[in-house]
Amino acid sequence: VTAERARVATEGLGARLLTGSYYGNTVQIWSALVAAALLGLVLTGAVNWKITDEISFRSLTGYVDHNGHDQVDDDMTSLPVTNTDDFSRISESLSQEFNLIGDHGSVRWIVGAYYFRENYHLNLPVIIPGVGTINLGAGSNIKNAALYGDVTYSFAENLRLNVGLRYNHED
Q1: Is 76 left (phi over 0), alpha (psi -120 to 50) or beta?
Q2: Could you say which DSSP state residue 13 is in?
């Protein structure tokens, strides 16, 4: 996850990636990526509850708020052939999963429900000298939900039968 505002190709946390060689200094490249990732907002959470000795409940939650901006020399030359002036991708996503898990010796099972949504907007203004700026962009609201189950029966240590089923719906 990155969040950055680079006005010119020599500024910003990702400047070394945008202006330099991908085969350049590995430490500087990874430092730029890690520093940029620290500016994004990522929240995750997990709750595990052992209901009985054989049954447990698990909740997994994730939230990402991403607002990235870059300026890119698209032709990667010193000539002003094509440039992207303010490439931005703004997104927010949320995921939630609930599991009920059972372990009864030779029979292990899990049933669960999953939900994911993401709203994003992508703006890609490309500057072409003599032509002007062409604005390319997209946006979407994605919603995904699923219900699933899985059962494993162990006949022996190295012989198991596994059966699973999943229903998925996406908008």
Answers
A1: left
A2: T
DSSP assignment letter at 18: H
pTM over 0.90: no
Q: What's the Cα-to-Cα distance from 103 to each of 52, 110, 111, 123, rounded to whole Å?
A: 10, 9, 12, 49
Instruction: Outline where DSSP puts E strands in 16-158.
Output: 41-50, 55-73, 83-104, 107-128, 132-156
Render pLDDT for 8-41 as a digit per residue (tens, 0 to 9): 444 444 444 444 444 445 555 566 556 555 556 7
pLDDT digits (tens, 9 = 90+) for 90-146: 888 999 999 999 999 999 999 999 999 999 888 877 777 778 777 777 888 999 999
Q: How far apart are CA 17 and CA 126, in angstroms?
A: 19
Identify the bridge partners of residue 125 per DSSP, sorted by sequence position: 135
